């Protein structure tokens, strides 16, 4: 099957982005030429996965596909219990509700939007304990996703282990630019938290991509398979939330996986309240089958090399032309440093949002803001958060675009970079209460 792409005129794009309030999330996909908004749910399923879709067992309870999914999860990730959910945030909602009490602190290696919101809605407070290098786009540290163990230790000393229900550990840290953690760092986090009786809950969303970087960069890991490394990462944690729409190559789906029976029981009960029966969790049987097959495909060596290799291809091209991007190049996306491209725009004029809109205007390529708009507001004070990273994310769906598409994207970014003096800042004219980046609207400021 092929998906047709549609080219648009400059006039059409001007109208479309104005109607979308200069927010690429509010564009209609028919007005988009090459869609690098996200790698979430946008990957192409394989022939095997499509065949699996035809074997959907749509029984309300105890679907055969659930048991296939449970087997695949145990085989690749190694946890004992599975709670399927409609997507990643469904799992985040459930685990946050179970483990977090009002006033709790949840340390983690940089926030992710939905993960942090669910922790806050459960009464907790997220605390960033990632290494400082992660906040510096130019640092070439090979594992910029790592936890700073001193920061974690002092948080435990300051708040006490009782106030820390778990450490929220991400792989291929999205907001840092798709930056990996090392096995060595995760082992150290594990032993520190173990000594204090604190759990580690993994956000396993892009774990295979992280494993690929470990295999390439971490001493002694070169001969291991991606599957072995993924298995070891998971074995160092007590459970995971998974947005299966990324690594696992499905258009929708997610799960919560756990080792402790008592927490699993609570989770499967909350699943019935918020998602669906615990053997489908908001998914159709056919979705669970595609996911079970996708899990296996996600750890195939050739696939992961080609996937990360394509991101690298785009990143190297941009960097080679002197366009400031986050280094090292991440696993799922290339991130442009909007502060460096638009140094004359203060952060309150949303340079990354403005740059993302400008790229769309130039070519119909859709990207996403990952800066001040995404960071939102402090929930206690209501004050805006101004993150150090002010980025535009060019996110690559898996198995969808060719290298030639990447050339078109790169040329458009170059053209926008060359005419960057004409890009106007933005003011926010509509701000929704939660996760504002999805639905906020903007207007250009006068030059
Ligand atoms: N964790 C990470 C690291 C994610 O990237 C996402 C989603 C989620 C959790 C939430 O999962 O969307 O299935 O509910 N990230 C998408 C993105 C939206 O574009 O990066 P979800």
> Do you know the CATH topology of the largest domain?
Aspartate Aminotransferase, domain 2
CATH class of the largest domain: Alpha Beta
Low-confidence stretches: none
Bound molecules: ligand F0G
Number of domains: 2
Average per-residue pLDDT, rounded, comes to 97
Helix fraction by DSSP (H/I, runs of at least 4): 40-55%
Order of helices and strands: HEHHEHEHEHEHEHHEEHHHEHHEEHEHEE
What profile does the largest beta sheet have? Answer: 5 strands, mixed
Helices and strands: which structural class? alpha/beta
Sheet-strand content, in percent, reads 5-15%
Distance between the termini: 46 Å
Describe the structure concisely.
The chain is an alpha/beta fold and 447 residues long. The protein contains 16 helices and 14 strands.
């Amino acid at each position: 099957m092929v998906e047709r792409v549609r080219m648009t005129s400059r006039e059409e794009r001007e109208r479309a982005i104005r109607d979308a309030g200069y927010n690429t999330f509010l564009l209609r996909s028919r007005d988009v030429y090459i869609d690098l908004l996200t790698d979430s749910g946008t990957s192409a399923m394989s022939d095997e996965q499509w065949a699996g879709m035809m074997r959907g067992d749509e029984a309300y309870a105890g679907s055969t596909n659930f048991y296939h999914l449970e087997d695949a999860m145990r085989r690749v990730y190694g946890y004992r219990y599975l709670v399927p959910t409609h997507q990643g945030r469904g799992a985040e909602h459930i685990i946050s509700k179970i483990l977090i009490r009002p006033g709790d602190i949840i340390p983690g290696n940089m926030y992710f939007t939905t993960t942090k919101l669910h922790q806050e809605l459960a009464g907790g407070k997220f605390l960033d304990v990632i290494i400082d290098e992660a906040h510096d786009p130019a640092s070439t540290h090979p594992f910029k996703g790592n936890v700073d163990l001193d920061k974690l230790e002092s948080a435990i000393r300051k708040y006490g282990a009782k106030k820390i229900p778990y450490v929220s550990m991400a792989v291929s840290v999205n907001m840092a630019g798709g930056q990996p953690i090392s096995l060595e760092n995760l082992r150290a986090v594990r032993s520190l938290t173990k000594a204090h009786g604190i759990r580690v809950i993994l956000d396993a969303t892009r774990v295979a991509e992280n494993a690929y970087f470990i295999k390439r960069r971490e001493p002694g890991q070169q001969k291991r398979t991606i599957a072995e490394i993924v298995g070891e990462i998971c074995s160092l944690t007590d459970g995971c939330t998974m947005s299966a729409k990324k690594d696992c190559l499905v258009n929708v789906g997610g799960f919560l996986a756990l080792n402790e029976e008592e927490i699993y029981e609570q989770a499967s009960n909350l699943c019935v309240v918020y998602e669906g029966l615990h053997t489908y969790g908001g998914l159709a049987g056919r979705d669970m089958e595609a996911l079970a097959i996708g899990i296996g495909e996600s750890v195939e060596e050739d696939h992961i090399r080609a996937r990360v290799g394509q991101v690298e291809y785009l990143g190297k091209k941009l960097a080679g032309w002197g366009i400031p991007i986050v280094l090292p190049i991440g696993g799922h996306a290339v991130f442009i440093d909007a502060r460096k491209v638009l140094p004359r725009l203060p952060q309150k004029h949303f340079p990354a949002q403005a740059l993302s809109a400008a790229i769309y205007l130039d070519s119909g390529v859709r990207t996403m803001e990952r800066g001040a708009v995404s960071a939102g507001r402090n929930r206690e004070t209501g004050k805006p958060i101004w993150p150090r990273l002010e980025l535009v994310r060019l996110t690559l769906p898996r198995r969808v675009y060719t290298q030639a598409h990447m050339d078109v994207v790169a040329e458009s970014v170059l053209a926008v970079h060359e005419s960057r003096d004409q890009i106007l800042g933005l003011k926010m004219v509509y701000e929704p209460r939660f996760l504002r980046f999805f639905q906020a609207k903007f207007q250009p400021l006068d030059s």
